[in-house]
Amino acid sequence: MNRLVIAAAIASSLLVIPGCYTPSSEASLNESSEVEGMESNHADHAEAMGDGHHSDSHSEHSGEGHGEPQQATLAKLTVPSAIAANQPVALGIEIQDSTGNPVSEFDIVHEKKMHLIVVSDDLQFFSHLHPTQNEAGQFQVENIFPTGGNYTLFADYKPTGDAQRVSALKMAVEGNPSPSPEMTLMRSQTLGNTQVGLMLPSEEISAGEPITVAFHLEDTQTQTPVTDLQPYLGELGHLVIVKQSDSPTEADYIHAHPMANHGPGHLEFMTQFPEPGNYKMWGEFNRNGEMIAAEFWVTVQ
Ligand SMILES: [Cu+2]
Predict the structure, then answer these.
(1) What is the pLDDT of residue 137?
(2) Distance 115 CA to ligand 1 centre (A)
(3) How many whole angstroms from 301 Cα to the centroid of ligand 1?
(4) Ligand 1 centre distance from Cα of residue 232 (Å)
(5) CA 164 to centroid of ligand 1, rounded, Å
């Protein structure tokens, strides 16, 4: 228990107010801030306890909720002690306040109380989950991890009366990851009957510069823009971006939503990349009930 209190105290000292970037009231952008000169990752606190492993993470204000109180929270991940690839794994996430008490009241954001983005640390695997709360207030969900290796879980949540935040949690799956394919800068991807094209203002992207990331979706049969996009979690699309690193942190995670509709099959997101590096982007769309997640790499100078 002592250790948790210490971790929470560290978290509150790390909780910085980022420069929020909200291009319009219709486009909300939850962007992680940078924690300059400080290690923002507490995943090395992971430990084995009794029936399973626990991993703690402090939270980072994710860019919404101006003027609201800023309480530090701690996310605590509980997973089985041995995790094998290719089988369902029960994940438990408890949010605690700075005194170690569970937080159980959350606001619904984009139709859910918690959004959980799971990526392998080589960014080959991506999954977007919605854990449900049990009676004790803990969030629970199952996931299948396709290969061994290290994974990062970004829990995105908003305690009632407080700011929205992101906590990065760490876990390992037995075995080794498959070799990563080469990073490609392909700008078109075909998923089922949908061709997704990515449009950037330029391939020369500078860190910290607001840019428009556009996706154009065409039906492969008719070669015309798709007209059957349905809202998914209250938006016509979601853009999740994670910076490539040995072990991504909250500061490496960006979640953006599209700006006002720009015509059939065309979606535009405003975002910015906090630092130079390679980033993987997943554009999520709902074509008449069929979920599409198109993935692209970008290099930022
Ligand atoms: Cu979600």
Answers:
(1) 92
(2) 4
(3) 29
(4) 9
(5) 13
How far, in Å, is the centroid of ligand 1 from the Cα of 6?
30
Distance (Å) from CA 129 to ligand 1 centroid:
6
Cα distances from 128 to residues 77, 226, 270, in angstroms, run: 17, 23, 21
Structural domains of the chain sorted by starting position, each given as residue range(s) with its CATH number in brackets:
2-173 (2.60.40.1930), 188-300 (2.60.40.1930)
Separation of CA 78 and ligand 1 centre (Å): 20
Closest CA relative to residue 59, chosen from 20, 93, 107: 93
Encode pLDDT of 81-96 as tens digits.
999 999 999 999 999 9
Q: Are residues 170 and 43 in contact, defined by beta-carbon separation less than 8 angstroms?
A: yes
pLDDT tens for 234-280 read 888 899 999 999 999 999 999 988 887 778 899 999 999 999 999 99
Q: How far apart are the CA of 254 and the centre of ligand 1, in A? A: 13
CB 19, CB 272: distance < 8 Å = no
Tokens of 168: 């990065």
What's residue 126's pLDDT?
Answer: 96
Cα of 114 to ligand 1 centre, how many Å? Answer: 7
C-alpha distances (whole Å) from 213 to each of 74, 108, 180, 225, 234 are: 32, 26, 25, 17, 19
> 50 CA to middle of ligand 1, Å?
31
Per-residue CA distances from 159 to 37, 94, 251 (Å): 28, 12, 20
Ligand 1: distance of its center to the CA of 222 in Å?
Answer: 31
pLDDT per position as a tens digit, 169-207: 999 999 988 888 889 999 999 999 999 999 999 999 999
Backbone angles phi, psi at 258, to 5 degrees: -70, 155
Per-residue pLDDT at 39: 30
**Distance of CA 5 from the midpoint of ligand 1 (Å):** 29
